[in-house]
Write a structure and sequence with these properties.
The strands form two sheets. The chain has a four-stranded mixed beta sheet, covered by helices on one side. By secondary structure, the chain is an alpha+beta fold. Helix content is about 15%, strand content about 30%.
């Protein structure tokens, strides 16, 4: 047996709120919409990962999701411009990433990062 996919599920009474953050800003595609569940993602092949953490590094809270992007500064500017709450960074971390924390429309703490 092997794991072929891991999906994060975020409970919310208003799934339409996901569009502005995950589609409009981060550019994820709407892969599935059944009315009661909307799945955003990418058709690109990605590695399967699940992390367990006592903290988020640099003594920050553990984020709910980590999303790797190709341009952290562009993502940061788009989040700020759209009014999303930035809670940390952007910061160049000693383990080789540039990142910031932002709250999504559901209050989840999202770690947006790129490897340097």
């Amino acid at each position: 047996m092997k794991v072929s996919r891991i999906v994060a599920n975020i409970a919310t009474p208003d799934i339409a709120l996901a569009k502005s953050f995950y589609h409009d800003i981060l550019g994820l595609e709407l892969l599935m919409d059944h009315g009661w569940i909307a799945t955003y993602g990418s058709q690109e092949e990605m590695g399967i990962q699940i992390s367990f953490a006592a903290q988020g590094g640099s003594n920050t809270p553990t984020p709910d999701l980590s999303i790797e992007v190709d341009d952290v500064d562009e993502a940061y500017a788009r989040m700020k411009e759209s009014g999303f709450l930035i809670e940390y960074g952007p910061a160049d971390e000693p383990w080789g990433v540039r990142r910031f924390y932002v709250r999504d429309p559901f209050g989840k703490l999202i770690n947006i990062l790129a490897h340097k």
